[in-house]
Amino acid sequence: MTLNSLDRHRPEDDLVLDLTNVLDDVLGTTHGLSTREMEEWLPRLREAVAAVEEANYGFLDLPERRDLMAQVERVCTRSLEGKDTVVVLGIGGSALGPRAIFETAWGPYGMGEVGAPGGPSRRLLIADNIDPDGFAQLMQQLDPKKTLFNVISKSGSTVETMAQLTIAWRKISDAVGADNTPQHFAFTTDPIRGFLRETANRYDVPVMDIPDNVGGRFSVLTPVGLFPAMATGIDPKLLLGGAAAMNARCRGVEVESNPAAVLALVHFLMDRLKGKTISVLMPYSDRLRTFAEWFGQLWAESLGKNKSSSGEDRAPVGQTPVRALGTTDQHSQIQLYTEGPNDKLLTLIRVEDPGVDIELGAPGLTDGDSTLAYLQGHTLGEVFRIEQTATEMALVRAERPTLTWKSRTVGPHVLGQLFQVYELATAIAGELYNVNAFDQPGVEEGKNLTYGALGRSGYDEKGEELAAYQSRTEAWVLGGGK
Amino acid sequence: MTLNSLDRHRPEDDLVLDLTNVLDDVLGTTHGLSTREMEEWLPRLREAVAAVEEANYGFLDLPERRDLMAQVERVCTRSLEGKDTVVVLGIGGSALGPRAIFETAWGPYGMGEVGAPGGPSRRLLIADNIDPDGFAQLMQQLDPKKTLFNVISKSGSTVETMAQLTIAWRKISDAVGADNTPQHFAFTTDPIRGFLRETANRYDVPVMDIPDNVGGRFSVLTPVGLFPAMATGIDPKLLLGGAAAMNARCRGVEVESNPAAVLALVHFLMDRLKGKTISVLMPYSDRLRTFAEWFGQLWAESLGKNKSSSGEDRAPVGQTPVRALGTTDQHSQIQLYTEGPNDKLLTLIRVEDPGVDIELGAPGLTDGDSTLAYLQGHTLGEVFRIEQTATEMALVRAERPTLTWKSRTVGPHVLGQLFQVYELATAIAGELYNVNAFDQPGVEEGKNLTYGALGRSGYDEKGEELAAYQSRTEAWVLGGGK
Question: Distance (Å) from the C-alpha of residue B129 to the closest C-alpha of chain A?
């Protein structure tokens, strides 16, 4: 198996978190945090970290779960022969994690030639929507005989994923016959329960575990992310090694030097004391674009709650995550970020050496007294990094609190660190906000109404409610002859 | 030229705006708008619409600018022979508009086979970042002899785009010689001024206009969007026809039946009276995913301001736009949207007939008393639409104000309507907020610091400021041996 060689990890690649630009020294007291404000919260932060350790959430130890890696290796060996394409059927964490890994390893502009040096060993397609138009387009691109469908669902019953599965199963069965169909599937699901597990047992479909105590949005370092990684030529050990390195930096240390604890505290205090109800994550790295999407689910679904940890009603909390990309979004969002309401905490990610650079300048365009002469002698990477600094500086001048992650390189090892530090920070922030960061009751209503409308047994009442809603009189409509 | 046949426009495809779920009847008075609240603002809304008409902004009449269409047709005829790939070099509006058009016409999952029925006539790549890693990947995918670079910049001097241009010019020149290089470029820029215009004149590069009175984020229906559209087989008249139809619905009518005016008023009042500081745009359509990105720039950069129209300091305004995608983001953001802070106005887009559907069910999975039996007899499109309704209903039950656009189909004609109604609404909202919706002073600081650091003449002081910032002592850093 060709494994990704992009990652040139050295100890100095460990992520550095620069918090200078959230301090009152830099921003003033209205928008900056004072030492006193932070110190007052340190005892509570220590309790929060202790509570997370005590709860012993499943995601904490994923970097050490050799049993899960062994499952991934076994399914790779058993199922990939003759397959040139892996299609993930999954939604939410089941899609965002694999996509972030793939794009970080192989880059977002296409992906280089499959099988060529510097390219993935297989094509990865991720179907995380059920627009029939889009799904039909995706299915048309496949040669069923060379395709493996990796169906990912913690519960084993996610309606979107199950709907896709029935279509894919039929397509494969038509192409290779019912007997050979299971060889074109690999399931990733609960170790014991659910439709996917039962079906795997019944048809001998290869199956991998999402541990019971690991929720969907915390599952990227289970087979959810590791199988699509390994199947496309990315060494899962790079991801796990990064996560383990971050665990070592965060666990069993003083909270003041624990990046996850500090990250959680700064977000919490910026929200609570300084009115930063929005958290913008803006990597300056094409490869990390989809990491910001992954963060968006983690932060929104974990902390957007209206019940306390013990289940009582409370005033709703939860920062709204916004993903951006530098420099691209300087030309889309920065006007708002610098001159609009000061209601955001920004986090930039800077990569010192993306591994490639290109000289600027061209005969006939940049010579002599050309308007573009100033570009001559510089590289694209220099401009990229200067713009990151310039934007950071402009934000600070506008008194916008800004965190900056600094990394020497970018690749799976760095991504593993990012996954782990944000999962830890989310769990700790859940404690600070006093909410359950691991449930998602707010998505149940829509799910149950959908089951009702589809006629699933036990959901009749919900079906009637939806029908009543659909037949109500619209009160104010423009267009359509009304 | 093969033009996109996806659009099956009929008069009943005109977009319907359902505003029922922003009313106090449905949401209650805390989060819903009352008739009285809206009526109080009608005189001001009439003034705002009148001011926009009086200003006669350039974007208003773009659907009728046959001169611009003629330019696009001329460059297509002159420049596309033998080219199988068009690469847009542009950032901000110069990239977001072309991308939204291309994905709406051809779909987001890959794009079908180039040149095949139902696929684009040429490949379109859009380079809107300067990460050297990503840009190198993109350039590696090109055969220079078969590539046309469409360089788009209103000012003709955008640093990112100019940097890309020097690399592309050199690459083409190396491949085909200096004399033939201009044949691989087409510029889209200011009609008179700027480096691109001068270079076009000097080397006889084909060039198209962005009219002086049309800003970058309002320029999608100029050659900025129309050339990449036509060059890849999309009929620009579908876009322009949609925009003209929307103009007819919005201009010269009572504000109460003007969708743009009502859209602007609802956003403004939801922000000002009900604390909805975030505007979420969530199409249920893979093809409209990137339209939501385009909206994000338009809304953020136009309305995120801290000066009044007349240039005085004022309290900052501007909703933060967030783009989402149904059903995908039901599994990422809906928890926050339904149970987190009630600080959002949501806008859903529903497409009744995406033109394709797929039956659910597979022998062995959905028969008999299978857990998935409830899917049998339904289609993927049904589930998709039911989920849209169920989510809308869940949002309303949680008292979250929600607008719904309804369209029969999706394609360039519908997209043309959406472009025009949101541009009109943005201009009107600028009047309501009393800000200049057409400038972006907040991006100047970062730009000037960048010029300074690169040594562009006239920016020495800015260069020194950036150097001083870079050499300051960081006050609080975790990792990196500190």
Answer: 5
Task: Give the range of the structural domain holding residue A153, as residue numbers without chain letter.
Answer: 59-234
Domain boundary residue among A217, A234, A251?
A234
Q: Do B254 and B107 share a structural domain? A: no
Rounded to a whole number of angstroms, the distance from the CA of B320 to the nearest CA of chain A is 8
Q: For residue B359, which residues of chain A lie inside 8 Å, CB to CB?
A: 167
pLDDT tens-place values along chain A, 482 residues long:
344 444 444 555 689 999 999 999 999 999 999 999 999 999 999 999 999 999 999 999 999 999 999 999 999 999 999 999 999 999 999 999 999 999 999 987 655 567 777 789 999 999 999 999 999 999 999 999 999 999 999 999 999 999 999 999 999 999 999 999 999 999 999 999 999 999 999 999 999 999 999 999 999 999 999 999 999 999 999 999 999 999 999 999 999 999 999 999 999 999 999 999 999 999 999 999 999 999 999 999 999 999 999 999 999 999 999 999 999 999 999 999 999 999 999 999 999 998 999 999 999 999 999 999 999 999 999 999 999 999 999 999 999 999 999 999 999 999 999 999 999 999 999 999 999 999 999 999 999 999 999 999 999 999 999 999 999 988 899 987 64
| pTM for the predicted model, two decimal places | 0.96
Residue count of chain B, please give it. Answer: 482
Residue B263 and residue B395 in one domain: yes
Helix/strand/coil for A218:
helix
Pair (B168, B256) in one structural domain:
no
Among B92, B130, B342, select the one facing A383 at the smallest CB separation.
B130
Q: Considering the candidates B301, B392, B423, B431, report the single residue annotated as catalytic.
A: B301
A171: tokens are 């397509």
Catalytic-residue membership of B331: yes
Q: How many domains does chain B have?
A: 2
d(CA B256, CA B259): 8
Which of A234, A262, A290 lies at the terminal end of a domain, its last residue?
A: A234
Q: Residue B447 catalytic? A: yes
- All residues of chain A having their beta carbon less than 8 Å from the beta carbon of residue B336 are 300-301, 303-304, 318, 320, 442
In a domain, A104, yes or no: yes
Q: Smallest Cβ distance to A108: which of B134, B173, B343?
A: B134
In this structure, the answer to whether residues A225 and A243 fall within a common structural domain is no
CA A289 – CA A282 distance, rounded (Å)? 8
The reply to whether B476 falls in a domain is no
A99 and A50 fall within a common domain: no
CB contact under 8 A, B137 and A110: yes
Contact B19 A93 (CB under 8 A): no
The separation between the first and the last C-alpha atoms of chain B, rounded to the nearest angstrom, is: 62
| Residue listed under structure tokens 């972006």 | B440
End-to-end CA distance of chain A: 62
CB atoms inside a 10 Å sphere around CB A77? 11
Helix (H, G, I), strand (E, B) or coil at B305: strand
